[in-house]
Structure formats: C-alpha cells, structure tokens
Amino acid sequence: MKKIVASFFLIIFLASCATPTVVNVVEPTDNSLSCSQIDTQIALAVKYADDAKKEKSMGTGTNVAALLFWLPGLYQTNVNVKEAVDAANRRAEHLSRLKTTKNCP
Length: 105
Prior knowledge:
The protein is an all-alpha fold. It has one domain. About 70% of the residues lie in helices and about 0% in strands. It has four helices and no strands. α2 (about 35-55) packs antiparallel against α4 (about 70-100) and α3 packs antiparallel against α4.
C-alpha cells in the first residue's frame, strides 16, 4: 500500500512540472512559406513567448507548490521559461528576416 501511495504522489508531482513549449528556431519548411503564413508563424512564436512568460509568475499552482516543497523545481521552471522565451524570440526574428528576404509587405 505504501508503494502505491508513493507512486501516486510521484506521478502527480512529475505531471505538475511546468514545461513551456520550446520552439525550433528554424523549421525545414520555412523557405516555402507564403507571406501570410510567415505572419501567422510570427504571431504563433509571440504567443509561445507570452505563454512561457506566464509560467514564470508565482501565481501558478505549480510554482507555489515548487516554492513550498521543491525549490529545484522552481529553479528549473525559470530555466525552462528563459529557454522557451529565447527560442520563440529567435524564431520570430528568423521569420522577420525571411519576410524581408521575400519582399513581403
């Protein structure tokens, strides 16, 4: 019974870890995108960056639990957020350069 309870709490703990989406900066199909598709992809990259920044706030349940029970988890969440925001920003920059190269309005 002890193992079942411990396993249950371990699964709940691992499932509650914050993992913001880290996008690929360059996708293999980027060069074939139309101007409107590039605009859509830029908006999506900005959305991923905004969503990742929300994970960093102390108001999320995961971060409150990490603060109370598992400080390394809180640190790792902040590291993941920084990585996700950086990747999303670099993707948006890459797409903006591609948009300029294609002479999009």
